[in-house]
Amino acid sequence: MKFFIEDLPILFPYPRIYPEQYAYMCDLKRTLDAGGHCVLEMPSGTGKTVSLLSLIVAYQQHYPEHRKLIYCSRTMSEIEKALAELKALMKYRADQLGEVEEFRGLGLTSRKNLCLHPSVKREKSGSVVDSRCRSLTAGFVKEKKERGEDVDLCIYHDNLDLLEPHNLIPAGVWTLDGMLRYGEEQKQCPYFTARRMMPFCNVIIYSYHYLLDPKIAERVSRELSKDCIVVFDEAHNIDNVCIESLSIDLTEDSLRKAARGAANLEREITQLKETDADKLQNEYAKLVEGLREADEARDEGAFMSNPALPDDLLKEAVPGNIRRAEHFTAFLKRFIEYLKTRMKVLHVISETPPSFLQHLKELTFIERKPLRFCAERLTSLVRTLELTNIEDYQPLQEVATFATLAATYDTGFLLILEPFESETATVPNPVLHFTCLDAAIAIKPVFDRFSSVIITSGTISPLEMYPKMLGFTTVVQESYSMTLARRSFLPMIVTRGSDQGTISSGFQTRNDPSNVRNYGALLVEFSKLTPDGIVVFFPSYLYMESIISMWQGMGILDQVWKSKLILVETPDSQETSLALETYRTACSNGRGAILLCVARGKVSEGIDFDHHYGRTVLCIGVPFQYTESRILKARLEFLRETYRIRENDFLSFDAMRHCAQCLGRVLRGKDDYGIMVMADRRFAKKKTQLPKWISSALMEADANMSVDQAVATAKRFLKTMSKPFPIRMQEGISTWSYGDLMQHQEKLGAERDREMRMAGAYEEGYEGVHGDQVMQEAQHAEDMIDDDMDDAMLGMDV
Amino acid sequence: MSRLAQSAFVPAVRREARPAGSDSPDEICPVCKSSRYLNPNLRFLVNPECYHKMCASCVDRIFSHGPAQCPIAGCTRTLRKPRFREQTFEDLKVEREVDIRRKVAAVFNRREDEFEDTRAYNDYLNDVEDITFNLINGIDLEDTERKFADYERAHADEIKENAELESQEQSSYRVLQKKEREQIRLRREAARREEEEDKRLVEENRREQLRRLAAGQDASVVEKDGQQVQLKRRMDRRAAEERQRQLHARDAPPTPVTNGATPFIKGLKQRKGKEAEPPVDAFDGIRYKHQYYSLQDDYTYSFLDNAKKDARILAGGYNVHEYNERALADAFAGLGVFIADEVTERAKLSHDIEVPTEMAATEAQDVKMEDPV
After folding, report:
1. What proportion of chain A, given as a percentage, has pLDDT over 90?
2. In chain A, what residues touch B102 (CB-CB under 8 Å)?
3. Which of A551, A681, B252, B312 is 20 to 30 Å apart from A314, CA to CA?
4. Angle CA(A733)–CA(A735)–CA(A740) in degrees, nearest 5?
5. From the CA of B320, how many Å to the nearest CA of chain A?
């Protein structure tokens, strides 16, 4: 289907379009025109990715700037899905336009997924693959080879150097599989192909971390220009990703390893001094000059890079007291010893970086400044020493990163030392958490650098929370509801059992037998009436275990067993995937199954229960975070002091976004149907925090039900769902053909004209809400209704 | 929540800590061979003379009667009991290194703003590190120590001054930190109070509604009223929040401490004390200026020639210049004074003054009369 949004021609690869897709595209275009950031919420399963891609690709191809698209997603499977969508879209475009556009779309993922080297690719752990790859591809290895030394090189990587650097792979869209296949054919490394081709791509699809984690972003995403369009899909958890990317946990073990790493470094230095003292001298001279090699950052094989250093600092020279290699290792050793000493304390400590630095200085005479250069100095040293077994230095790198971060940021971070694993433990197992409290720190460079950042997800309510937490302003902030020809999903809030006792997973009542029995009754009833699959979400593993064992004692599981198979998610991912597989088989062959899982577990994010895989989702209890965690407490405090977000508001927001995520699992499209049950007294007050598309479908009457009422309503709902519903009934309402779309546009146009005319009569300088875009439209409209306007103006003047 | 105090780690808290180097349970004192397995309270001490570790009871036993030789075989140092202490770091080498660094840092305490540019400062840091490194690893020990001592002697004043600055900075930082902690505590308390207040209000509102319903009022009206009350309260709260925010913004320092900026507020009077004080002016700004003559540096008097040179006279502080000045002042004194004018002036002045004093006197009397007490 081809249509226009204003002057922009859009090729949409399907014959029909959903109304919300159209609205989504219009808002996207508005954002891109205005050149700002936006937050958009669109229900899951309504084709978010394809509308996003088709609009942006159309935008790229139509306007002369050819703004690059950086599409970030969370998981591998989502990246692959997006690549496949893009490929289909480009094929459609080629068919429609009659020519293949000069277009490149690439996906990037870790070395582990893209390696072709026969022995390296067999490694299991990602970090081992990384370091082995580096040892085969680093620049100095090649130099050694040229000097005639006997070293191994990766043939796949070497072959890249024979090609033209801007044309490593033919134009087109390459899925990860496609890249691997092409790489195998041409004997070239897919990972480095993707990395090196990034500046020449129209669309790049990769994981959040390549943009958010400052340690990686600096290397990978450095050369992307300012006018790139950045999209974060499935971004409801983006604040946590930001925080995790800057948080570091140190244990005694990792410190010991780091100390060993420092000792190794020292040995390497003495060795190098004996064999090739010039190299160290060269490095020293460079550091004295305060010069950084221009190509350093581009060095793909670099060991690590700076975690979020301000630019002015990067230009500064390394402080004199860590300039010499041996001074630096002594410095590291001292710092590690200090940390070890701190770990010996037997009570919980939480302190701010400045107070940590103060104490550090008192005890070890380490100043703030050299500490800040720690990470950079280590990188430089590792490069000079030409180390290949880099994974041994990982703990040391962590310590260095920690040092740099602690010395750079005064606020937004907190050091928490927990000497015991749990309250009751007697054997100390200290962990030093260096936690980032401010999600805005990691994402700030992204907002600063790129003019358009689009944050989108199926469940990102309340929208205003994200700009607040991440510290940015939006041009457009919109939540779309789902247009449905019939009511195809039924959200309900169950607050009481059949005995009218309230049900809740609150701490006081969560293990009351009556409460548990009511939950059990709910499960039994729904297992009887739901066809095929049911997914049940609990707030935590702990609660799930206790409630299941109580159900076993009450004989509830036996009743459930009669109608459904019961499967349980565990923290172990292999067990879980086995359970999932069995669940799918049971659903497909008609036995039906129940999957018991956890709201913050693996199942709740990223696994779809479309169609018969999930007809009912039960959310047992509000999935609050574990509030006794010190890290969470510190973050709550920070949020209150800095962003004026109250503790309860944040906790409730966080619980509801996870809940919405769970509920959204069951509905993955317009032809799908399902029941969503939220079973907790406390949901009744929180229904406003649900995404718009769920809350608008939640009737007032369904918001405070008992178990038997819910069962009756669900039965009625399933009966209507079982009636045949031919696809043409949806047309014009929840799916638009080209004609419908034209009609809609005409209607909108007419409305706008009317508005224009009215506004024109009031005053000449019509100022709309949407700024630029409306002005532009006004201009456009003015040409058409020039005469009317003149008349009106004349009338006014007289 | 308030348990999560931002308690700074104070070294004195070390008592709660596991002693450094106590990882292995079967650690043995090298002197008396008693092990931690048999005596869980075993404490190890080191002396910064030689950094040999021994248990506390051995220290008591050997050094109670005054200085003695280190009992470790091959060590000839004489140790004294008061200098024994518990080790801070697990690694004794680092322990020693830190001790040396303490010594060096006390002497080489130049500050970055003393240097012309960063490069010079970095070079200085590098040199200091070289010296420290040599001291620690015993490279060119004599030479380095001599350099060290030379520097200390040559720059004694500056060292003292910088040390003072340093301690000033530290104390001001501590004060700042204390203030910050106090502020955080206050804010936390305020938030808690606010929350409690909220809860109380909601509860009150609910009770009020129930009471009115019980009194038989129309349900819809009651509900509407209740909602309005709540809405109003919410608006009030928002306004209060806004006020608080403004207050907070005002409280905040004009230059917010951001990334990378120096967090230490330098004592403001740091450099001021160094300026030379202005000379004492006894006459409060009135200067005697001679307008009728100009004073030469030298006058030729035959009878004064002797006084200019004679040590006996000069030793007493006699200054010929002074004599000249005085002689000239005497000679010209009174030249600008006209007595006739002054007399008339004085007469006029005294008349003027008398009148107001009379008036003031009457006024004072009036006040007195009106005074009821």
Report:
1. 41
2. 365
3. B252
4. 75
5. 60
